[in-house]
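Forum: Protein Structure Q&A
Topic: Joint prediction for protein chains with partners

I've read a bunch of threads here and the consensus seems to be that you should model interacting components together rather than docking separate models afterwards. I'd like to see that in practice. Below is the full input, 567 residues plus whatever partners are listed. Could one of the regulars post the assembled result?
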Amino acid sequence: MIQFENISKWYGKQKALDTLTMTIPEGKTSILLGPSGCGKSTTLRLINKLIIPDEGEISIKGRSIRDYRAEELRRSMGYVIQSIALLPHMTVEENIGLVPDLLKWEEQRKEKRCLELLDLIGLDAEQYRSKYPAQLSGGEAQRIAVARALAADPPYLLMDEPFGAVDPLNRESLQNEFIEIQRKLKKTVVFVTHDLEEAVRLGDRIFVLKNGILQQSGSPADILSKPANEFVRDFVGPDRSLKLLNYYLAGNFTDGTDETDHPPAPETPELNAGDNLKTALSLMLETGLSSLPVKGVSGRIHRKTIESLVNLKEPRNPETEE
Amino acid sequence: MKKNSLRTLLLTGIGLFFMAFVFFPPFSEAVLKLLFPGVPDRLYSRAPLPELLLEHFLVVLISEFLAVLTGCTLGIFVTRKRGKIYLPMVQSLASMAQTFPPTAVLALAIPLAGFGFKPVVLALFIYSCFPVISNTVSGLNSVKGDLIEASRGLGMTDNQILRKTELPLAAPVILAGIRTSTIINIGTATIGAVAGAGGLGTVLMAGLIHDNGAYIFTGALCAALLAFFTDKLFALLDSRYRRQP
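Posted by a regular:
Agreed with the consensus. Here's the joint model:
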């Protein structure tokens, strides 16, 4: 648990953060979301003492970070930044081994950990360990940067727009891998982004910032369905309903009735439990069906359920059941 | 491939010629006789050539060693937080000092520091510092800020950032500075003979005084070849450093 209490930070006369008070929960992914210049990066860098606040107190598990030596604090927090910043004169293995090296691990342990991590991020260890950063693609380099941050198995992970410099296709697979990894590791992640979609996909909790002031904090569903003010409403955009559907998984919203007696017609498209409701709605609009079966889950998912989730009004045209 | 082996062959040839010229007087006698048939006293006889070469080498080695030590330390110091205020001063001093012709440096050193081995080493040391300083500074300054930021974020101390991130990345530029400085040093050291430091300049000066082309040639050739092979040595070192892509 990382607690911010009345944190303020000025850059010259510019107030970057204004009496920020928030609590970052343990073992979850917390997103700091906002437009550029909103103070989200500053907030992140306060946690590992790259920046010292002018006012207020930050504490980790109840202990003020003032009591920690900056270097020791940082070694217990993985750090990933947008520009990747792998050290170009070191191999992948040496880059991953940087923090273990600072912690004076033995060679064998370092090597074992490196192989483990390359496996975790889905890169072939023998092929990649002796490569130099210049030989990697952007996506590969960013995976290595994540591996480097995880090397010493730190309880905290700080990520400053880690996937911002990667092309959209690669970004999506990086995000999926991140979700997978986080599901296994359950780190306390603080993740900075200006991308709402990314925030909704990855976050357990979102903190929306503007001009150094916390606007709203809550689950992605909270932020999308109940924007606290005009700024958040604008920031999430007029299509927030669809974005919200993006966040809900089809498997969790079936009616639960047993349909084994009435198998669906063979042409009926089937959803996967991991598909989101936006896909479900899209398929319904395409096929004109008002409900769809979900593979491996009992019951169907109904258009009405989706509509009630986003508080849409009753449809104007009555549906025709097949 | 073929071009490379030709180069190696050529280098070996020049190297063998150099060795024979220095260590085998009948050979140098023959070469000089061929080039200067009219000069009666072709072979410098007051001191053996290997000894002069060694003297020259030592003057350069000692002064350059001190210059690298001082230059790198100073370069590192002015790029740290504590030394940052001295950076503009040191930088402008270094670039100004490098516009000084090397000959003038020793000419000035004699009235200031006197004659002999030590004053010459001192003068060469000071002069050789400047390329090392300016390259150390620009090498360290060229390290990207986000790499330093990432290193700090991973939990390196300032000292570790310097050793693990900054110096290795600045090394090629620093090495280039040492290379330049050493080559200039070898040339400048010939003038050291005027101030009584010995070395290959002794032969060269004797040739100038006695109007003996063979002496001048001997001194100049040896100094030039010493500089040439030292440069090749640095090239080798540099390619070792850059073996990674």
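The longest strand of chain A covers residues 14-24.
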